[in-house]
Amino acid sequence: MRILIATDAAPPQVNGVVRTYERLAAELEGQGIETVFLTPADFTTVALPFYREIRVALPSMRHARRRIDDLAPDFIHVATEGPVGWMARRVCLSRGQPFTTSYHTKFPEYASAHLGLPADWCYGPARLFHNAGAGTMVATASLSRDLAGRGFKHLLPWTRGVDTDLFRPRDVRLFGSDQPVFLYVGRVSREKNIEAFLGAELPGRKVVVGGGPHLAELARAYPAAHFTGPKTGVDLAKAYASGDVFVFPSRTDTFGLVLLEAMASGLPIAAYPVTGPIDLVANGRTGYLDDDLAVAARKALALDRTAARRHACQFSWRRMADQFVENVERALLRGGPVKAPRRTVLRRVRKLRSIGVQSLQRPRFRRLRPAKI
């Protein structure tokens, strides 16, 4: 079985979407499923005007079709709503091939932050993009409810995982031990709302780990804060373990992998009560959610760090991969707006089931019937 992931988020970008699909590919390989990618690297690219370090693909349907034919996938998953995603979507629609999508970023809010467009204007195109598929994978229950209320259809649950061997409590204090350390990790960009963290009245040191287009501006505006730049691997894990509270100021993330990484490292969370934190944080036990971020951060300082670690250990990358495969099977059997030939659908489902993924043998999937074609 070969699954193609069409994504505009790919290395050298460093973000949660890229990490998710890197781990998905590794987990699926262990289950006998080959993962191939269609990314901006397959096209001529240009830099984004407000993110010069990110390059986007220039659309070329002829090249997209040829590249997809060369990769010869059994199934296509469209990960992002950028040019690569739209091209892959169009190829699937023109050929009558069922496909799934995933909703990783609140793009309407993202566009509002960077382009000044009303967020509601962007939900129509987003709905059009996703509803053409046989299913849209979403990371949290609150996001699913929000999208369903906006007219998105065939929403499928798809959680995330964390490497609890890498991200764990460590006997290290990179940023000093004389006062509490309030930590932010992630992309340093405008939509992350980092000013809400840096401007909060907190009794300790503020540390920002990560890079991005907003870094230089924030460093000038908040000289008392410590900006480390990007970190990866063990260096990143040590940075997490050196904090006392993880502050998550974003209001637009759909999940927040950094929340799991922080909790796995023993850090309680301080965040707003919005999509992502309300699904991942046990309020009053593994963190505090409050519309006043400073209040949440000060209260989180007193929480038991072992509770945060135990909570994060419930999330595994293996379960994430199994759930992805379940969703692919469900989408194939449903058919959706695009109906593939019955024989093709059944052949692809048999390929998935022949792999022997345990979760696919559960009765609730055997009860599904192929869509009438």
Topology of this structure?
Layout: E1 2-6, H1 16-30, E2 34-38, E3 45-47, E4 55-57, H2 61-71, E5 75-78, H3 83-95, E6 99-102, H4 107-115, H5 119-131, E7 135-138, H6 141-149, E8 155-157, E9 181-185, H7 194-198, E10 205-209, H8 215-221, E11 226-229, H9 233-241, E12 245-248, H10 257-264, E13 269-271, H11 277-280, E14 287-289, H12 293-300, H13 305-312, H14 317-334, H15 342-354, H16 363-366
Parallel strand pairs: 1-2, 1-5, 5-6, 6-7, 7-8, 9-10, 9-12, 10-11, 12-13, 13-14
Antiparallel strand pairs: 3-4
Helix pairs in contact: 1-14, 2-3, 4-5, 10-13, 14-15
Description:
By secondary structure, the chain is of the alpha/beta class. It has two domains: 2-161 and 318-366, Glycogen Phosphorylase B (Rossmann fold, 3-Layer(aba) Sandwich); 181-312, Rossmann fold (3-Layer(aba) Sandwich). Helix content is 41%, strand content 15%. The chain has helices at residues 16-30, 61-71, 83-95, 107-115, 119-131, 141-149, 194-198, 215-221, 233-241, 257-264, 277-280, 293-300, 305-312, 317-334, 342-354, 363-366; strands at residues 2-6, 34-38, 45-47, 55-57, 75-78, 99-102, 135-138, 155-157, 181-185, 205-209, 226-229, 245-248, 269-271, 287-289. The strands form three sheets. Strands 2-1-5-6-7-8 form a six-stranded parallel β-sheet, with helices on both faces. Strands 11-10-9-12-13-14 form a six-stranded parallel β-sheet, sandwiched between helices. α6 (141-149) links the parallel β7 and β8. The longest helix is centred in the C-terminal third of the chain and has 18 residues, at 317-334. It is globular and about 65 Å long. Mean pLDDT is 88; it is low at 357-373.
